[in-house]
Specification:
This protein is an alpha+beta fold. 34% of the residues lie in helices and 27% in strands. It has a single domain, classed as Histidine kinase-like ATPase, C-terminal domain (Heat Shock Protein 90), CATH 3.30.565. A 5-stranded antiparallel sheet has the order 1-2-3-5-4, with helices on one face.
Length: 140
């Protein structure tokens, strides 16, 4: 880690209290390091969506680890859990051309995350690793 990087790690349970704890840690981090407002909001939406999906659908048995990293030019969020494999980068995009009352439930959140961040996924052993990042100078 270079001297210009800032780092925070929070371990949470995959439940509503964990989601609240992740949000609190995130808000403290972005306030402390004065992350620009547009990036602060976009990355919060992405973090909330990924952790919310994990709480609702993931069923990990161990803690979820969220790492926030701020460098001179990038804000990055890493999420690691031991839930079932799920690669958000390969999730089918919802058909947003259908009338809203004909659309199946799900998929919009992941679509939003992909639009707000550069997202990658790996499965290492029995753990999901999701990385969402955003350049501090321009949109993804």
């Amino acid at each position: 880690m270079t001297p210009t990087e800032r780092l925070a790690i929070v371990r949470i349970g995959a439940n509503e209290q964990g989601l609240e704890r992740a949000a609190g840690a995130y808000l403290a981090f972005v306030s402390r390091y004065r992350v620009p407002d547009d990036i602060r909001v976009d990355m919060y939406v992405a973090l909330d969506e990924i952790v919310s999906n994990l709480v609702r659908h993931g069923s990990p048995t161990g803690p979820v680890e969220i790492t926030l990293t701020l460098s001179a030019d990038t804000f990055r969020i890493d999420g690691v859990d031991d839930g079932p494999p799920f690669d958000p980068t390969r999730a089918p995009a919802p058909d947003v051309t259908l009338p809203i009352d004909e659309r199946p439930t799900g998929g919009l959140g992941v679509l939003i995350v992909m639009g707000l961040t550069t997202c990658s996924y790996t499965r290492a052993g029995d753990r999901n690793h999701v990385v969402m990042q955003r350049a501090l100078t321009a949109a993804p």
